[in-house]
Amino acid sequence: MTETLQNPHRGTGLPNRLSDTLPSSDAAAVAKLLALCPAHAETPLRDMAELATTMGVASFHIKDERSRMGLGSFKALGAAYAIAHDAARTEPDDWAQALTGRTYVTASAGNHGMSVAAGARVFGAKAVIYLSHTVPKAFGARLEAQGAQVAWAGDDYEASMVAAQKAAADNAWTLLSDSTWGGYEMSGFRVMEGYLQMASEAASQIPEAPTHIFLQAGVGGLAAAVAAYARATWGDAPQITVVEPEAAPALIEAIRAGALVDTSGPVSDMGRLDCKTASMVALNGLAMDADSFVTISEQEALDAVQTLKAQGIASTPSGVAGVAAALLKRPNLGPDARVLTFVSEGPEDA
Fold first, then answer.
1. Which residues pair with 5 in a beta bridge?
2. Residues 9, 155: one domain?
3. What's the chain's Rg over C-alpha atoms?
4. First CA to last CA across the chain, in angstroms?
5. Domain ends where: 148, 177, 206?
6. Among 121, 144, 177, which residue terminates a domain?
7. Tens of pLDDT along 143-193?
8. How confident is the model at residue 25 (pLDDT cuts 50, 70, 90)?
9. Rounded distance, CA 183 to CA 148, Å?
10. Which 8-state DSSP code applies to residue 262?
11. The overall pTM is greater than 0.90
């Protein structure tokens, strides 16, 4: 069942935080490091004037992450940035060999694995990516083409993450998850920090500050980073809505409970958002920064894919979930609304 929940913790945060760590809002260090990467380039902010007219709002802008660093997703900014941060700490003479001898391991349901693979390759490290057996074989082949070793384990993302954690412990490899939990914060924090780049770009590109921002969430990294930057840049004015699949309501249930919780549900077609437990640090930030949390149905996400395809923007149900909530006006949007959303990835057959 789809629903909307107003955030009772807005401005104060959870009553009993598991950690004092909050998402960063300082994009300057990210931009400085990314400037060293030859693949880095700004992605476009698209003015969806026709959709704005149809919706009856003042403006509707989409930050289009489909071309990010040639990897097809915003997640190119995450793990690759975290690995680059590790490389910079070695003060290398040769960046291409900065992390030679090091192996990064993670589990992935999609684009995070591509970012780990690409980042490791650029700086001379190795990457091992664990995939569940529900991930398409073609994605495993894409990872191998990036130079990663692919291992298959379990029937869902959670099981593949358990396998990745065990491999890290057994082999003294570096676990690089896009989530955070008790005792594991800084790597995921760095991944989220990388996502600040797209928020910073959007803020410099948009002609007028948005009144409403819609952010899709799996474990919550994208949403938490963009929300933190939005609050630092525009203050309390924008209404920030976090959007999840109804099959994976990890954040909305955590906000309702006032604590990190495990959820359950069927497999969602919004595969990159099909995460049953939120990132601890992301939850800390969103509890303070988000105004509302909503869930959307599988069909609503598919409808948004078709709407954007007609506008020349091809993506996936995961990639357009924030757009879907905006199109559905959850929450309600008035004629003066200036909407900012993100298309977070390209089509799976790209």
1. 293
2. no
3. 19
4. 32
5. 177
6. 177
7. 999 899 999 998 888 889 999 999 999 999 999 998 999 999 999 999 999
8. very high
9. 27
10. B
11. yes
Chain centroid to CA 86: how far? 20
User: Taken in order 154, 156, 159, 164, is the CA torsion positive or negative?
Assistant: positive
Q: State the pLDDT at residue 67.
A: 92
* Contact predicate 305/320, CB 8 Å: yes
* Per-position DSSP letters for 118-169, written without gaps between them: HHHHHTT-EEEEEE-TTS-HHHHHHHHHTT-EEEE-SSSHHHHHHHHHHHHH
**CB 343, CB 62: distance < 8 Å:** yes
Quote the CA–CA distance of 36 and 124 in Å, as a whole number.
16
Q: In sequence order, what are the beta bridge partners of 128?
A: 105, 149
**Does residue 210 sit in the same domain as residue 293?**
yes
Domain limits for position 51: 4-73+195-343
Q: Which amino acid is it at 326? A: A
Same domain, 172 and 220: no
pLDDT digits 0-9 by tens, 253-265: 999 999 999 999 9
How far is residue 250's CA from residue 223's CA, in Å, rounded to a whole number?
13
pLDDT tens-digit map of 207-251: 999 999 999 999 999 999 999 999 999 999 999 999 999 999 999
**Is the confidence at residue 349, as pLDDT, over 70?**
no
Sorted by sequence, the CB contacts under 8 Å of residue 198 that are 6+ apart come out as 43, 63, 65, 68, 74, 77, 226, 342
Six-digit token string for 4:
């909307």
Tell me: do 132 and 170 sit in the same domain.
yes
Provide the pLDDT for residue 75. Answer: 85
Residue 1: predicted pLDDT: 66
CATH number of the structural domain spanning residue 283? 3.40.50.1100
Same domain, 35 and 119: no
The DSSP symbol for 96 reads: G
Q: Is 47 helix (H, G, I), strand (E, B) or coil?
A: strand
> Is residue 217, in this structure, part of any structural domain at all?
yes
Section 9-20 average pLDDT:
90
For 269-279, write each residue's pLDDT tens digit: 998 898 899 99
Q: Looking at the structure, do residues 200 and 307 belong to the same domain, yes or no?
A: yes
